[in-house]
Amino acid sequence: MDKVTTEIIDFYESRYDEARRLDRRPQARLERIRTLELLREVLPAAPARILDVGGGPGAYARELIQDGHLVRLVDIVPAHVEQARTGAPPIDAVVGDARELPEPDGSYDATLLLGPLYHLQERADRVRAIREAIRVTRAGGPVAIAAIGRFAGPIDFAATGRFDHRTVAEARRLTGDGVNDTTIGFTEAYFHRVAELRDECREAGLPDATIHGVEGPAWPAAEAAQTGPAAAQIFDAALQLARVYSTEPDLVGVSAHLLVLGTKS
Q1: Helical ranges in the chain per DSSP H
Q2: What's the number of CA atoms in the CB half-sphere (13 Å) around residue 2?
Q3: CB-based contact 9:82 (threshold 8 Å)
Q4: 89: left (phi over 0), alpha (psi -120 to 50) or beta
Q5: From the centroid of its chain, how far is CA 215?
Q6: In 3D, which of 233, 232, 213, 235 has the Cα closest to residue 222?
Q7: What is the pLDDT along the chain (265 residues), one digit of tens a residue?
Q8: Where are the chain's structural domains?
Q9: Which is it for the CA torsion 14, 64, 108, 111, positive or negative?
């Protein structure tokens, strides 16, 4: 196991509670709502066989199981796999690497790759993970791929009152380099430009995929207003704008997360 992978596993097992992430903040709640809406628009009718690669403790897998789907989860963090197995409902989950999935060709009706690209800093590894997701999906099945937007970190720091001279320097650096600075926050990670993500998907075998901005352009407003008197109203507006501008080319890259939806040919 390489040093970067070891660091990522340690981060999630010792320093960060991924199981609670999607309930903590306005940005995360927007991420959950919009990701599920977008997935449900493209997934086959239940019961479909779905592979959730990098599914963490199983937040999305459990929602899809409740929808009637048959979900298997693969994650590189052993603690996440254990949480997925022991939660309610329990999830069929195994430890595995997105770059080398322990699954046969064409064995799933749909495949989700909603976390691994965040942590694969080399383009070749990201393309390999996308190819693997495509490989295990049947012809005509949907493939969903998530990435963190290039500018999510600095925007988040500004919206939550944590912006300082170090963040200014990081914002400038990120215009040319998508590798996360682990001394400022988060673990080993890579942040995508929209065009770059599109190119990686094309190279891997998804030439006609659609890229959505998950949280939409108003998520920073929802973050900034979360303790104020208009928090609920602003969150609702942010959600509505996320739906309206989901694929608007001039706004997609403002979202904290990007979601590719494609179909295996």
Answers
A1: 3-10, 21-24, 26-42, 59-66, 78-86, 116-119, 123-135, 152-159, 165-174, 194-204, 219-224, 231-244
A2: 7
A3: no
A4: beta
A5: 11
A6: 235
A7: 788 899 999 999 999 999 999 998 999 999 999 999 999 999 999 999 999 999 999 999 999 999 999 999 999 999 999 999 999 999 999 999 999 999 999 999 999 999 999 999 999 999 999 999 999 999 999 999 999 999 999 999 999 999 999 999 999 999 999 999 999 889 999 999 999 999 999 999 999 999 999 999 999 999 999 999 999 999 999 999 999 999 999 999 999 999 999 999 9
A8: 3-263
A9: negative
Angle subtended at Cα 237 by Cα 35 and Cα 174, rounded to the nearest 5 degrees: 60
Tell me which residue of 219, 231, 243, 224 sits closest to 35, measured CA to CA: 243
Q: 73 near 55, Cβ under 8 Å?
A: yes
C-alpha 243/C-alpha 240 separation (Å) is 5
Q: Give the residues across from 1 on adjacent strands.
A: none
Structure tokens given for 49 = 């066989």
Label residue 45 exposed, middle or buried (CB < 10 Å: 0-12, 13-18, 19+): exposed
Ramachandran area for residue 83 (φ above 0: left; ψ -120 to 50: alpha; else beta): alpha
Strands 210-213 and 257-263: antiparallel
Looking at domain 3-263, its CATH class is: alpha beta
DSSP 8-state symbol, 18: G
DSSP string, 24-83: HSHHHHHHHHHHHHHHHHHSPSSS-EEEEET-TT-HHHHHHHHTT-EEEEEES-HHHHHH
